Amino acid sequence: MAKLSLGSTFSIFHSRHIRPPLAGCHVTEMTVADHHPSLEVVGGARDRFLPSLHTNLRLPYNPFPLIAWNRHVETIFASFFRSIPQVRLRRECLRVKDGGSVALDWISGDHRRLPPDSPVLILLPGLTGGSQDSYVRHMLTKANGKGWRVVVFNSRGCGESPVTTPQFYSASFLGDTYEVVKHVGARYPEANLYAVGWSLGANILVRYLGKESHACPLSGAVSLCNPFNLVIADEDFHKGFNNVYDKALARALCKIFKKHALLFEDMGGEFNIPLAANAKSVRDFDEGLTRVSFGFKSVDDYYSNSSSCDSIKHVKRPLLCIQAENDPIAPSRAIPREDIEENPNCMLIVTPKGGHLGWVAGAEAPLGAPWTDPVVMDFLEYLERGASKTGKFLGDSEAVQRSSGELHHIEV
């Protein structure tokens, strides 16, 4: 279950814009004035998507004074002190084909308040993250305030999601994502589907986009703080202050594991349950449990084959990637810039600072939403305006409904 989300890491220590023409309209000439030089903006879809982000990207990226002088200070500050919007959620427990369970958290009352064709946004938190995390709550309330239906996809064991089989989730496992997207699509067949993922959730989301390719039922997606190359991320994870994050995430994984330890009591073979239960690092947990559960020969084999950098070239839906140059968890050198620049569906924004899931900058800094939230919404609303005119990027909706009919769910 490796790699990473810091939004939840430190929570475990606590338990106006210019509207462009329609999507699909291409701008053939771009100048430096189209984005501020403090930002790196590249990608095969740059000319197509950049006009929708004019207002935000024309301004300099100004991190909040004192907080953003150090990437670790910014990362920790955002995790400890960023406000957590209060929202009433309605939980749906979804039983998937292998008997496992995930928890979908919807905003209470939206099923009555919003029309059936309101766009749906699926949120994928990072490792051990869930609907309780501040970065998730801010995105949820921002989108919902603009009339979007939002659902948080809490992976197995995360956000108090039940664990009903001796298997968690991992960077390599896409089965639950397939079923959640199909289920949500069948529930709202008139709506366009979108997704936003952070850290591990971003890695899983981009791998899903690449695997589904032309058949992907999503009309667009956003990846934030994606580690992209888990081998490189793992190398950096054991350097200097990063050991603090590693130990914190390991404690979070052990805490989840111990709640469900009885399910794993009789596991034999290559499993090392004591190592997983008492892991001092994420790598320990992955060695004892994750890589064996998902059939990998070693932890390095698991990381190498679960990296989303290899998926970018296969993405056929609009994808915005936002990274921070100084991210301690998702190293800048791991970003697959060449593939993003060659893919006509992808665009990359790199901010000079931001830490991991920090981005303490913009109008709501330091305690409000991260700088990225309005950029994400500008992008998604741009896609939605285009999709509503040109039709959804969906395959056979009847097939989606039939497939979803195989799922079992209970609302609690």
Automatic annotation (TrEMBL):
Hydrolase as UniProt keyword: yes
Keyword field contains Hydrolase: yes
Catalytic residue list: S199, D327, H356
Domain AB hydrolase-1: 119-357
Sorted UniProt keywords: Hydrolase, Serine esterase
Family matches, as PROSITE patterns: UPF0017
A Gene Ontology molecular function term of the record: monoacylglycerol lipase activity
SUPFAM superfamilies according to UniProt: alpha/beta-Hydrolases
UniProt-listed PANTHER family: ABHYDROLASE DOMAIN-CONTAINING PROTEIN (PTHR10794), ESTERASE_LIPASE_THIOESTERASE FAMILY PROTEIN (PTHR10794:SF84)
Family assignment from sequence similarity: Belongs to the AB hydrolase superfamily. AB hydrolase 4 family.
Listed name of the protein: AB hydrolase-1 domain-containing protein
UniProt organism field: Gossypium raimondii
